[in-house]
Every structure is written in C-alpha cells, then in structure tokens.
Amino acid sequence: MADLRAGLIGLGMMGRHHARNLHALDGVELVAVADAYGDPHGAAQGLDVLPSAEALIEAGIDYAVIAVPTAFHKDVALTFAEAGVHCLVEKPLAFDIGEAEEITAAFEAKGLVGAVGYIERYNPALQELRHRLADGQLGEIYQIVTRRQGGFPARIADVGVVKDLATHDLDLTAWVAQSDFAQVAATSTARSGRTDEDMVSITGRLQDGTITNHLVNWLTPFKERVTVVTGENGAMIADTVSADLTFHANGENPTNIWESMASFRGVSEGDVIRYALTKQEPLRTEHEAFRNAVLGDASNIVTMREGLQTVRAVEGVLESAREGRVVELG
C-alpha cells in the first residue's frame, strides 16, 4: 500500500514539531506544507512553503494537520472538509461553541475522520492511567484533581490561560472518567498586565457524579503537570512532566473502635507502586493514532465531538468566572 499523503498548515512553535513527526512517521509522507507567514523554524525541510489550505489541497493530500492560531481553525477546517480531506486540528477545536459545532457537523456530514490534538492524552502516564481505570483498579472514581502551573509562554498572544492550558485539563478529566462535565464554577484573575486571565481555579462535577478541581496558571516559577485520581481502592498520580504513574493503595489497618464508630469508613496508607512505563514522545503517539484512524482504526483519537464538548466546558468556565456563578452544562 502506498504511503498516505499528508499536508501541514501552520509552521509556528507547534507546527514545527508536527512537521518533525510527520517526516518520521511510518506509512506517511509529508508532501506539502503551508504558512502565509513563511517558515521561521526551518520545518519544511526542502518542501516549498505554500500560501494556503487551497494550495495544500491542490497538492493532492489524503489528510491535513491544522496548526494555525485558534481564530483561523474554522475557516481552514471547513475548507478541508469541503474538499473531503481528513483533519487533525490542534487544540482547542475552535474559538467558541458555534464554530466548534460548525466544524464538527461538516466533518460528520462528509464521513471524514476529524480529530483534535490534545497531546496530554497521549502522555504515557495518562495512557496507562486510563487503561488501569478501565480495568477497575481504583473501583469507583470519587474525585479528579489537576494542577497545571508554570511561567508565561511567549508564544501566547490571542487567548488566556483557560483556552490555552485549562482546556487540556477539562479534556483529560472527562476522558479519564469517561463522563462529560455537568457543571463548573470558576474564579480567575489577570496579574501579568494582559487583558486575558492568567490564573484560574475551577471546581466541577461530571455527569457520573465525580467531583473535580483544577488549578491552572502562568504565574508559577516552576512547571507542574499533575493529575490525581482518587477512588474507592486508593489513588493514582500521573505526572506528565516526568511521564510517571504512581499508585497509592488503601491500607488495611484494623483498629479497636467503639460501636458508635464502627460504621465510619476511612482509609490508611497502603502500598505505593511506581509503574515502569515505555516513554514514547506523546506527539508521536498522537500522529500514529491519527494515521491509524485514517486507515480505519479510530479507537485512540480525540474526536471532534469530544473536542466540541471540551469547548463547551471551556466556555462554561469563562462564563462562571465572568458572572460569579455555577454554570450548568447541558
């Protein structure tokens, strides 16, 4: 079978990493790249830098990776959908709910493979966490807590920390629990002199009753990317900076207690296990998953329908922070 012909639009900070992985991806040939502003990082590697999505289509591609700024996602994605080109769109799917719905509907109507590039899902620690939760290792899930903190990234110019970073946490939380958000409540602030928020605290509840908490900011002088899932059998901690997964089991510590306390169900510290994981670059895994989806196995992609749900949660967070109330998500 001939290699799939891939195209890439957007050669900025993220686009250059997509180009590197597409160049090395088995079963895929990167045949064309496009960016109206040129190739500042030398990602094209000998390919002509085309000016538009239409030019990529004329090059004869099977699928495209969209790595342009979020504000341009809708127009570019709809252009590819009209031409019958499968697409992997960088996160978030779109700038707002209306645009996300339009993109999703267009790809579904054409029967095209559409995915969203939530790279955190492909981190080895979170992939292993999801498998172990699916196998029932934690039993019923009670709570999911995430912390995503660090310094301000110079690449960000058009959105605040909610649409840039918190969108990862909202996506991975719903995916880990296999349940969408039912409600969110958020408080945000802007402390760095920008108009958009640079710090947010979010509490939430999923449709299955799991409670959640998310701390996200650009104002911390160290990098932290942690997900803690607590369930009836213990807790798992996924650190996506080091790609480590640790299991803290509930201990068995019988005590002599009086009758009135006999019904109290607490926990104690049990065994702690850090799992040995195969640590492949998450972006490579993401590209392999999308290639496989184009070939017929869509079991490991973030669908546009999931991406739409995350945009809905993001908009709920911003509304809650703006209006100071709990927002119900239908």
UniProtKB/TrEMBL annotation:
Residues 127-236 form the GFO/IDH/MocA-like oxidoreductase domain. Signal peptide: none annotated. This is Dehydrogenase. Residues 5-118 form the Gfo/Idh/MocA-like oxidoreductase N-terminal domain. Keywords: NAD. Pfam families: GFO_IDH_MocA, GFO_IDH_MocA_C3. It comes from the Bacteria. One of its GO terms (molecular function) is nucleotide binding. The keyword Transcription does not apply. It comes from Brachybacterium phenoliresistens.
